[in-house]
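Problem 3 from the worked examples.
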Amino acid sequence: MHRQLNRPRRTRAVSSAMVVVALACIGATGWYASSDVAQASRKGESVLMFDDFVGPAGTSPDPRYWGHAVGGGGWGNDEAQVYTDDPANSRLDGEGNLVIEARPDGSGYTSARLVTLDRFAFQYGRAEARIKLPSGQGLHPAFWLMGTDVNRVGWPQSGEIDVIETINDASFYHSALHGPSADGTPWEVKAEGSGNMSDDFHDYWVERSPDRIAFGIDDAVTGEFSRADLAPGQEWVFDKPFSLLLNVAVGGRWPGDVGTDTTFPAAMLVDWVRVTDE
């Protein structure tokens, strides 16, 4: 996602009808109300991590799970934002949501990137988050995973799993895997589809099992990839622990410059994050 310097070399297309099916599941059984998530589980699974962001307005999210990656101003796709740990950029809203907010700051922008690195990681299972995404020219929100060895081996050797990304008017979704080739160059496979992704909260999820990763929105599977899908020379680096990340980026090569009609502060709301072992 944010570390990628070039757009995809290899793509698996997904029909835009899939996201229409996903969005139609709102209000059915595709996601849980936040009060139910801690107790609800599919048969045989256990909850490895759950945060429903309940707490007083203005406080930081649970430090057992969440830290901040601080810095920026050129990270990833030459993005414009600087990530901070200031409550102005990331805080609980007192109504059961985490707010991650991009804000103007003089000639630039501040935002937040929350990470579970060194606090929580998982290898196999299902990670999901109920999120309301922002929209506006130049905005780039994301829920994604990174290999916990990233500081030792670097990217793309660490691997990257983009559960959900949108840019600009959030009129399409993007989910992807990034990994290394034998010569060290990055590869990408992705699932994309159209739909108004900022209209409401949706449940964005990834399921990880040996040699296989599947993505979905609400009740719909939107993409599935396996080790066998890779081209010669492409390496599968996903059967190891990964940590979680949530952020709102601003500007850069993918979304482009911020538009004059983009409304700030621009907030991504996260109702809950849940990881189970199945």
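Problem 4, a separate protein:
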Amino acid sequence: MNNNKLTTSSATVIAHAGSHPEDHYGFVNPPIYRGSTVVFPSVDCMQNGDQRYQYGRWNNPSTEALCEAISTLEGATGAVLCPSGLSACVTAILSVVGSGDHILVPDSVYAPTRHFLDTAGKRLGIQTTYYDPQIGAGISELFQSNTEAVFTESPGSHTFEIQDIPAIAKAAHAHGALVLLDNTWATPLYFKAIDHGVDLSIMAATKYIVGHSDALIGTIAASSRAWPQLKAYHFQSGTYVSPDDANLALRGLRTLDVRLERHQRSALCVAKWLEEQDQVSRVIYPGLPSHKNHSLWRRDFTGATGLLSFVTKSAPIEAVKALLDDLSLFGLGYSWGGFESLAMTVDPRKMRTTTTWEEEGHLIRLHIGLENAEDLIADLKLGFDRFDLICHQA
């Protein structure tokens, strides 16, 4: 398939990017190439590197197809793969900061990313300042002479703050710093990171790209400004993704558009229902008009996905356990982005150092999967009945 003749929508790009049947005897999906060693026809060819594929860790048709697809969808100069979302965050950070460098990170960042910076990152000599994700252009005041990068995550992990990425990018670039974004929630389908000034767009492709909870993988797409550093560090670190996992991610990518549409529709239905429940004090979902950054979300995003949170009214933890433990359609588990709905409790107070979390109720995060939304609501309704029972006994 010739992918370069037409300027097409993201949905069409998703269906065709990285697909080259002419290279694989007409098969629309590239075969899975497992292997480490690639042989050369001559010493000269080997010494000069005059061969498309030279070693399994460096590249193969399976990983190359996914990189091409991600890079095309992101509008990036290039893309690399990592064995997990966290690995992608760490790889992106280490490609642009090192010993003695300073990085700005939102207080709402994914907890494992924070943990890396506070432990291994600190040992490596990286200096980190956590900032209020709502800071916008005010981030200019936080730059130091050694600030090399600004990390962003929008929406924020668990609490879904929308950051003003264009304003932050403008400030960062004025100070000669690069901008990194964990774009897992929106994906490039709903937020074009590089178009909004981001230099390294990161995804835990484990989530919506794979879409079926059967592989771990991360992706990083780079602007022309950041690509040389990313490409070099990714090679230097020996980071590698198996062709089997790359194949699962490429397969999942093909249905990203239709899956996210369903996730969004069902999540909005559940979120609106939650807002009407007496047991709920607040629903946190950027797609709702009640979200404090809804106007910013409408300005920059083209959609919302299936992950949201809500805060219960003040209640004993036993009531929350009664609500969640016996849900039939929501599993209790980490991660998200698959076809199945999930639930978990979160305490933001354990993950914040710059901002404060003052809600009296319990924060519960839901991933709304591909089940029927009314069935999910019925499951939650029974859970709230159990919640009320415990509250009345307390």
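Solution to problem 4. The longest helix spans residues 373-393. The mean pLDDT is 94.
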